[in-house]
Amino acid sequence: MTITKIGIIGSGAMGTGIAHILAQYGYRVILNDIDEKKVENSIRSIETILDSKIKRGKITEAEKVELTENISISSNLTDMKDTDLIIEAIIENLDAKTRVFSTLDKICNENVIFATNTSTMSITKIASGTKRPEKVVGLHFFNPAPVMKLVEIIRGYYTNDDVVSELKNLVRSIGKESIEVKKDSPGFVVNRLMLAQFREAFMVLEEGIATVDDIDKAMALGLNHPMGPFELMDYTGNDIAYDTLEYMYKEMGQPNWAPPAILKRVVNSGRIGKKAGKGWYDYCKGDNDL
Predict the structure, then answer these.
(1) What is the DSSP string of 4-23?
(2) Mean pLDDT across the stretch 10-38?
(3) Could you tell me the CA-to-CA distances from 286 to 202, 275, 280, 281 in Å, in that order?
(4) The one catalytic residue among 119, 122, 178, 238
(5) What end-to-end distance do the CA atoms of the chain give, in Å?
(6) CB 19 within 8 A of CB 31
(7) Measured between alpha carbons, how far is 181 from 143 in angstroms, rounded to an integer?
(8) Looking at residues 205-210, what average pLDDT do you find?
(9) CA distance 141 to 229
(10) Among residues 20, 32, 117, 140, which one is catalytic?
(11) Is 191 among the residues known to form the active site?
(12) Are 135 and 196 in contact (CB under 8 A)?
């Protein structure tokens, strides 16, 4: 099977970024969302990024035109029927993801591969809403998708070897590296390791060992991470960190995965990160008062 036409469900930060990188490498992309205005905003955000690159001499106007012409927009799932691959990038909610694939299963031909960009949730459970579990797989890009080099390819219980091989080729074709997650385990590889780091950072903070600023500085300068755990949570969303830990807690059945009270307080206060202008840090005023 040759993948040339790819449908992306969800036009948030991840869906937009995935559409951008795939179109950049010549794939024809259909970017879908239930609200067409959201998709239009996504296209404008891609154009803004490309205009900035033109000003810096990174790309030409012709390259911008070629990339944007590779993306079409949609607000109807029936537009996905002629695709070779679907990448779902909607909210991190198991029921919502399962419903989307159940609907697509009735629309798309039996050869279409269904991939979910979930960072944590069971591929096997998501596949249960379809009649093609062997063609359902995890394809986890990292934010921002055009920049981050890694993609996790996650097997569900029934995922076919040919599907994994096809997606490894796809990832390679867009200049990225993949790792294969052989077992459908909550959090996969990266989130399993990263969330453990988050939990320890919360304990260091709650025990009064160090401040948010200094914990982040320790990780950035001491371990050479690009950003510390609190800055990273603000970037990706504290609400997402909370929901992910809650899912891990339910799936693993171990108390140490439960979201800590301090994270719950931050989320309940509306300080969910950069998208709200405030999180562990205040992006409007430049301070970090909680």
Answers:
(1) -EEEEE--SHHHHHHHHHHH
(2) 96
(3) 22, 15, 11, 7
(4) 119
(5) 52
(6) yes
(7) 19
(8) 97
(9) 19
(10) 140
(11) yes
(12) no
Q: Is the omega angle on the peptide bond into residue 144 within 30 degrees of 0, that is, cis?
A: yes
Could you count the other beta carbons within 10 Å of the beta carbon of residue 179? 16
CA 281 to CA 288: how far, in whole Å?
4
Rounded CA gap, 5 and 193, in Å? 34
| Beta strands in the chain, from DSSP E residues, in sequence order | 5-9, 28-32, 71-74, 85-88, 113-116, 136-141, 150-155, 177-181
Active site residue 256: no
Residue 69: strand pairing partners: none
Could you give all domains of the chain from N- to C-terminal order, each with its CATH number?
5-181 (3.40.50.720), 192-276 (1.10.1040.10)
In angstroms, the CA 96 to CA 54 distance is: 38
Q: How far is CA 209 from CA 9, 198, 213, 257, in A?
A: 43, 15, 12, 21
* Contact between residue 36 and residue 73 where contact means Cβ atoms under 8 Å apart: yes
Q: Span 244-252, mean pLDDT?
A: 94
Q: Does 32 qualify as catalytic in the annotation?
A: no
Q: Phi then psi for 147, rounded to 5 degrees?
A: -100, -45
Q: Collect all residues with Cβ–Cβ distance below 8 Å to 249 and sequence separation of at least 6.
A: 255, 257, 258, 259
Tell me the DSSP string of 157-226.
TT--HHHHHHHHHHHHHTT-EEEEE-S--TTTTHHHHHHHHHHHHHHHHHTTSS-HHHHHHIIIIIS--S
Distance CA 181, CA 159 (A): 11
**What percent of the chain stands above pLDDT 70?**
98
Q: How far is 59 from 36, CA to CA, in rounded Å?
A: 28
Of the candidates 92, 152, 166, 231, the residue annotated as catalytic is 152
Catalytic annotation on 224? no
3-state secondary structure of 72: strand
**Can you tell me the mean pLDDT for 254-266?**
95
Predicted TM-score of the model (pTM): 0.92
